[in-house]
Amino acid sequence: MRSIPFLLTAGLALVLSACSGGEDLPPGDEMLPDAAAAMSEVTSVRFDLTVDGEIPGLSVKAADGVVTADGSSEGNATLTMLGMDVAAEYVIIGEDAWVKGPTGGYQSIPVGDDMLPYDPTILLSPDSGIATLLESVESAKAKDTEQVGGFDTYRYEVEFDPAAFAQFIPAEGDWNAATVWFDQETARLVKAEFAQGDATVTMLLSDYDEDVTIEAP
Q: CB of 176 within 8 A of CB of 159?
């Protein structure tokens, strides 16, 4: 019969093993450059953005759609305007953009208009997109492995350069800390979560490098 001290020691070993978390993950200074390189080669991606809580400077409540590396995007968004949530459809092709509100057809508007306050093409922008943001990480701590959207991922806690992050999401306050999940096989970003106070921004990415054709409405 095993002694009680042995059982306690074995149990403690199991607990420590279960809590080891990021010890078996690639270190941040290896994973983040790999992820940045992988994201720089992406030609298209589907995104799903949700905002929980009030974020000064960001009137988007939710958005989803597809983005291409040549600067095009189309999808749907929910915006807060005059205290109400308004649904809209959008198309962006380079410098041209169109939005369709709850009534009427598409209207040509500039990116940054109240009906298109956030430009999702920034996700794959070579100058200020996800790849550039990952290159500007100031610290990255490996945390754990997780299943996200059917992918085996590595989870990290990261802090970005504030100036680089300010170009990525136009929200007031310090939003440069995040939790990020990378696909273990490809190093591509699968999920990112940014939080401040009671507000959270969550972004999911999927359907990488699919053939996408975006046309003007």
A: yes
pLDDT at 2 over 50: no
Instruction: For 21-58, write each residue's pLDDT tens digit.
Output: 556 899 999 999 999 999 999 999 999 999 998 887 77
| Residue (of 190, 132, 138, 189) closest to 162 by Cα position | 138
* Distance between CA atoms of residues 169 and 180, nearest Å: 15
State pLDDT tens for residues 51-86: 998 887 778 899 999 999 999 999 999 988 777 889
- Residue ranges of domains in the chain, CATH in brackets: 21-206 (2.50.20.20)
Structure tokens at 183: 């696909």
3-state SS, residue 112: coil
Helix residue spans in 28-186 (DSSP H): 28-40, 130-135, 162-168
Count of C-beta atoms within a 10 Å radius of residue 42: 21
Least confident of 100-114, 124-138, 203-217: 100-114
Q: Is the pLDDT of residue 16 over 50?
A: no
DSSP codes joined into one string, 10-64: HHHHHHHHHT-GGGGSPPHHHHHHHHHHHHHT--EEEEEEEEES--TT--EEEEE
> Which among 162, 121, 127 is positioned nearest to 40, based on CA atoms?
127
